[in-house]
Each structure stands twice: as C-alpha cells, then as structure tokens.
Amino acid sequence: MAHSVVIIGGGFGGIGMAIRLRQAGIEDFVILEKADGLGGTWRDNTYPGAACDVPSHLYSFSFEPKTDWSRRFPAQPEILEYLWHCARKYGVLSHIRFGTEVTEARFEDGFWRVSTGEGELVSRVLISACGQLNRPTLPSIEGRESFDGPSFHSARWDHGVELAGKRVAIIGTGASAIQIVPEIAEKVGHLSLFQRSAPYVIEKPDRPYRGWEKALFAAVPSVQGMSRAKIYALYESRALGFVKYPRLMEVMRRKFIKGLGEQVPDAGLRKALVPDYPMGCKRILISNDYYPALSRSNVELVTDGIARITPGGVTTEDGREHEVDVLIYATGFLSTEFLSPMKVVGRGGRELNDAWKHGAEAHLGITVNGFPNLFLLYGPYTNLGHNSIIYMLESQIRYVMGCLDAMRRAGLESIEVRADVQDAFGKEMQERLHSTVWEAGCDSWYMTSEGKVVNNWPGFTFAYRRATRRPDPRDFQARRATI
C-alpha cells in the first residue's frame, strides 16, 4: 500500500508530526506503532512512581496547552492521557496502525519500502519517531537467566507480581530507580538496592495545583503562558553550567552536599551516596523522598560489585549472598543505537548500522547522508540535560515540514543532505561537546561504548530552534520527480 509519509512510532514525536501533517492538509500518511497503544516511553514505563522531571506546563505541546494538570510535575498516567487527548482532538487515531512493528526499511527507486509483520508499505517519505529511550537494556551478569523468582526490567513492569513482604532487589540507581524505591520501600519486607555509581539527586519542587490555580489557567490562558515562559527561562539558564561554564556546576554540587547532609543522618550511608564525578556529567535526578527511603531499616544500599546472579539471589564480589524473592532491573536503555534493531537500507544498499558503526550522525539530528527522504525526530545530538524535549521535537517537526513543503513546491522526488554538510555539523558537535560537563570524566547513557557522546545538544534550545527554523536548500542534493 502506498502512502506519501510513513511515521514509525506513536510517542510525542510521532503524534506531534502527525498533527502538523494534518494541519498542512496532508492526509495520506500512516503511523506504524509496534505496541497496542500510543504513548512511547509514557506507555511503556508504568512502574510505581513513574513521573516526568520537567514541569507539566512545559512538558506539553505549545499548540495544545493543558490547563488542568493535577500537579507541577506530571505523573505517567496523566501524561499518557494527555497524548491520547491530542491524538483524538486532532484526528490522528485513524492514521495509526497498532501492533505493527517495522523490521526493515529500504530505499529503492525513489521510494521507501517498509517491511512489517503485517506486510509491506511504500512511501515517498520515512520519518522515524522511535526516540532514544525505547529499548530496555539488561546487564551482562553471569547467571542472570538462572534466577528462580520473578524478574523484569523497570520499563516492562510486571504488575502481577506482589511485592508486599517480599525480599526485593533493584539493580541500578538511575532515574527509574529513584522513583521506584520510595514507592515500594514501605511495603516490601526488605529492599536491596545495588549501586554501581551514585547519582546526584536534588530537590523536586513539586506540589499539587490548587483548584483556584487551575480555574485561573483555564479562564486566563495568558497566565499559563507566562508560567510556561517562566519555567522555560529558568530551565534554559541551566545550560550555562552544562555546556558553557561547567565550573558553575560546583555551586550546585555544594548545595547538593548540604542537602544530602540534612536528609541522610548516617555518615556511612551519606559517604556512599556522594558521586565520584562532576555534577551534571551524568543525568541529574530530582526527588524529595529517595534519600529518606534509603534511611529506612528495611532498605540496604549495596555498593559492592555484583559477581553473579544465582537461583536464590545476588552474590556480590565480597562473597556475600543477598537472598532475593523478586529481581528488578532499573538498568536503562540502549540509548545510542537509535533505530536498531530495524534494518534501514539507503541509497546504493548502504545500511544505517554500518554508516553509524562509530556513533550515530545526522545533520541537525534530523537528516542522514545516503538516506534520501529519511527524517529523524529525537535523533543524535538532540537530547537535553536541562530543558523539555517537547520544545526540541517541535523544532524538528517544523524543520521536517519545511523540507516537505520545499519538495512539493519544487516538484522533487527526493532530497538528501550533503556529506560535507553532515560531516561539518558532526565535527562542530564533537568540538563543542568536548568542553561540556558531559565529557568531564564519567560514563553515561549519553555515550557510545567507544566513549563518544552522540545524544546531547551542546547548547541552548533557542539556538537549536534558530538553526532549524527553515531548511537551507544549499545543504541538500535533490532529485526532481520524473513524469
């Protein structure tokens, strides 16, 4: 079946792209979603305490403000419902094919041939909205498959497993773990938290919105608009510490140390919770109840390395056996592999995995040389450490719409970013990243196995918006459609 546009993924990027296509009068498109519902990461991550670390007024589409968010930092169910609301309101649902996983996409004769378990589709344009945090990763620990009890990744939470009174182990202390631990600590019999590297966890300025506030937001939209602008400006200012003047992070670090001392009275535990890398090098986390939860008598922070997993628990390198009933992996995602495990074949039979074997590259994080009419949303160099990814997605969607409009007006069959343009952009990104806090001496999910940061944008988000304001025809090589 032929379409003008195929979108892969039904999360924020895919839904936002679809809405803009419809608003531009383009109806001949389809969203291919491998799951049975939309939402992306907000559909997959249903673990206890799942919530966003960006305030709700900013973590939403600019064209569809929500005036009745229940609190300043939205929880997973509310974000997922917001996305469903947007899809319904803007007539996107009828364009989604649920339960349709893409296995291969191949560019031939000016078209993308997209293979799925449900058959093949053909489209002039292919847009990937798969995101960066969609494929859970499990650690390579000896004996992992031998564990006798229930085990699962945090992004595949098994709600059929009862945790009350059980001995539970969580491996990992990232963004998911610091939300899960406080939620389950009170109900489990014993919780062992295995920490390889301590995170920086700062205060979360969260609270429910009062009734009169929500009424005011609804009655006077400009009030919410000002709230959004204020939040944006505050969060954008943090880029100074991340990408411009990393030494500014030391001020935040001193504040972190002070807060840690106030929340964790035990000196030994407090020492184990102080990270051994500069603040901001890894993702900074926010929580008001993580550290108090670690001080509970039934919670143990384990800092010894894991030697192996056994049928009955976890053995650490000191020889100690930690008996466990339920094992939870809060071990993150394959964040630098982007479109994998799909096989994407571009011009001349070139495979994307081969082109990216030393790290993903895309001009502005959107277009890739050798892959005509392929556009990426939330691609390399577009993740943030300080602001809302929705803002970045809207910038990318506008850029893609500009490319599609230019193709239509000029009667083009395909456009492809030039190799020298992509190379120059990648070189600039790497040069700028070298002076950021993300390369200050730590391993993080922003890096490939070779130590190359490929996820993050090393600058202000308004600078990215300016860079993606409209496509520059000089950046592309084009092929005119033949009759």
Automatic annotation (TrEMBL):
Pfam families: Pyr_redox_3. This is NAD(P)/FAD-dependent oxidoreductase. It comes from Actinomadura barringtoniae.
